[in-house]
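Obj: model holo form, ligand = flavin-adenine dinucleotide.
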Amino acid sequence: MGQAPVMNLPSCDVAVVGAGAVGAACAYFAATAGHQVTVIDRGAIASGASSACEGNILVSDKEAGPELDLALYSQQVWRKDLAGESKLWEFEAKGGLMVTTTGRGLTGLRDLIVRQRAVGTIVEEVDAARLRDLEPHLSPAIIAGAYYPQDAQVQPMLVVAHLLRIARNRGARVLTGTEVTGFLRERDRVVGVRTPGGDVAAGAVINAAGTWAGEVARLAGVSVPVLPRRGFVLVTEPLPVIVRHKVYAAEYVGDVASSDQGLQSSPVVEGTPAGTILIGASRERVGFDRAFSRAAAARLARGALALFPVLAGVQVMRSYLGFRPYCPDHLPIIGPDPRAPGLWHATGHEGAGIGLSVGTGALLAQALCGETTALDLAPFAPDRFAEDR
Ligand SMILES: Cc1cc2nc3c(=O)[nH]c(=O)nc-3n(C[C@H](O)[C@H](O)[C@H](O)COP(=O)(O)OP(=O)(O)OC[C@H]3O[C@@H](n4cnc5c(N)ncnc54)[C@H](O)[C@@H]3O)c2cc1C
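Output (holo structure tokens):
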């Protein structure tokens, strides 16, 4: 007996697989550039990491190099190109503070500042007295720090919802509850996707499936090494304003850059407009294990108390966890895949996919239009990994 015929869904110029922050940004910029866009997600919008994260837009935690270049470019997109929309997603230009308790930490921080400044990051070294002006409740053990006025915060789910709403107003279609199960091919060329509800023919397909991008790529016969890196966040009861900036220990930068599988949890503390304080975020590579980890939660709480002793006795209301889309070289994968023409990737942003989403979407739209991209995409090439060559 033959299979029931599958109805074809309307074709489009660009199909985006994944309706997280990165997919939403790709859809927004592609639709704004005049492409007919279809976004396809197997769940609801923002059902992946983009609803299980914090909303920091950071330059401070990045070493000089391609990721910082992308973060600085994304700053322009958030603050200039999307300035008119920033209230929609609660954009808060709060600034970040990286702090240290040791002379050795301060030396490392100074070296980092020099490298970051050389590529355009705005950063000011701050002594203990100025630190107390900026954050009156900081622990007296903290001796110095650095202030990064470009660091900001958004509400990630609002980013996804509004980018997709605006994209829809510009003609995009969003198919939720629709899994991409395969690709349409004409010889080696990707010309659309298969879903249980029908095929979607597309001039280009963007793989923005976050932590699952490796599985989606495999459906097209190529590999991208995206792995889950679990993170927990603690959320306190609502409080009067205690923490004014994003505050974190200088060791955090090392944790982000590390490829260690074991648990890492240098503290990151920030307030939200609702009054809750977010305490993040652990990092460990344990696959998609969703079990609560007392060890991770305890380390986060201890770390937060070391920065803000005033939090002792404050109730933690809840915790949540998510899986960052991690790449072994800590760089995202952005651009056309020469191994499967017609397939593009926008994934692997690990712990920075909210902040980097809009820069990624803007760059991909430029490339799709055949324009010279504002940043060179070569460091993010999908086929850069040795095992794929
Ligand atoms: C604890 C924690 C804290 C974080 N804090 C920050 C932060 O402060 N700032 C920051 O910038 N980043 C942060 N991140 C990282 C950020 O969450 C991610 O980088 C970002 O959300 C990735 O977005 P995405 O759109 O690539 O993926 P996702 O949001 O995961 O979206 C991928 C989508 O693809 C869909 N999908 C998968 N497979 C298929 C398929 N076969 N067919 C159809 N759809 C499919 C999924 O359903 C999902 O909706 C944090 C992450 C964690 C876990």
